[in-house]
Amino acid sequence: MRPYRQNRRFHRRAWGPVLLLFPLLLLTFSLPSCQGASLYTATFFDVFDTYATVQVVSGSQTEAQALVTDIHDLLLTLDSQFDIYSDRAGEANLKTVNDGAGNGVPVAVSEDILELLSLGQAAYALSGGRVNICMGAVLSLWHDARENGGYVPAQDALEAAAAHTAMESLVIDRQAGTVLLTDPAASLDVGAIAKGYAAGRVAGLCEAVMSDGRVSGVLLDLGGHVLALGTARDGDPWQVGIRDPRPTEGGGQGSQILTTRSVTDASVVTSGTDQRFYVYDGVTYHHLIDPDTLAPGRLYRSVTVYVPAGVACTVSGGTFDSTALADAISTALFLLSPEEGQALLTMIPGAEAVWVMADGEVIGM
Questions:
Q1: Which residue from 47, 100, 195, 225 has the highest number of Cβ atoms inside 10 Å of its Cβ?
Q2: CA quadruple 204, 53, 121, 310: dihedral positive or negative?
Q3: What predicted TM-score, i.e. pTM, was given to this entire model?
């Protein structure tokens, strides 16, 4: 039976710019509210292989445009540094680290890469190993299967790759500013944490312009990671809708909303089966791979987490921002039982979750 593939582009590059149709759409805006603020919206297509939308509430178009430009520039820089498929001219990125695996030569990297990989180590500890940025050897097999017609990787190949996923193979020297992979067959894949880290950096960027009142609200949608800061144009919290992953009565994927939350100063992140998937021999295979089975997780259709922004979280002796951890938490909960997930949530003050089980039951609403 020939595999069916969702009508959606699957790119060979998991973390790099897609074909840039427009560098940055013209900033559009709504009429001012009674408080005199307008809502400015911009969308761009060249970061983290997704569509990114930024909404800014401000009384000044100049301030809104400047902030959007700064956010776009920051995301472009991070995307290039975290790329595992293309070299970065004149500077090391994660592809450089992967290419040097096993050669014994530490790679000098940026502070953002050091912070991201340290976040990856924390995510591994927090999730009990469910989120593993050293699992690139396994994930690449599933990535190739998805990209090349939709087949199932051979189990012996997956098990052979799994022998090269030890977190201990990643050596970070913060003082020297270097990274080293000691296993020549190991590789990094930061897909479970990169957008969360980027959202955390965006939150820091917005802090100054929001603290002095130049901007009163920012909503960033970075391909499934929604960061809501401040308030919407009317002064109320942002309204964030969560897509229902369950099929419609006709059996197709609909666009209905499962629930809507009022959100301010928080991240809303969904990990689900209905976006990046293919169907082979009647079975759906998605991108969220369980390190225990080396196959897509089967407990849920989706898990959505609500994580307050700016909360300091202590993990394995280090302190990490809750926004940066939000993506890792979402992925971890998708691969843990509800009971294990609830226990993990207690480690993040104020965090909540909604689970849509494989049978369609909804927990947490």
A1: 195
A2: positive
A3: 0.89
